[in-house]
Amino acid sequence: MFLIDQEVCTGCGQCVDACPADAITIQNVKAVINQSLCRQCGICADQCPVQAIAESNTCYATQPDQREPFPQRIQGFFLRWWNLQEDCL
Hints:
The structure is a single chain. The protein is α+β, with helices and mostly antiparallel strands. The chain has one domain (2-88): Alpha-Beta Plaits. The protein is 25% helix and 16% strand. It is globular, with a radius of gyration of 17 Å. 12% of the residues are buried.
């Protein structure tokens, strides 16, 4: 996953022009990657003149405070899918 350091990004738009998937837009004068469209090619990182884009091996949510850690999300999925009580797992 490629992430943009919002404190480093200048909003120049070079990554927007370079992205073959049209996954990057400028919002509030900063570049933002739509992860669902991103092809993980890395062209944006190569084109960024201030090196604000980097690949991360860690999966981050757009708003991490709204996401549960992965094991809890999976457990919650199965609880909802099979209508189980939590103590059944």
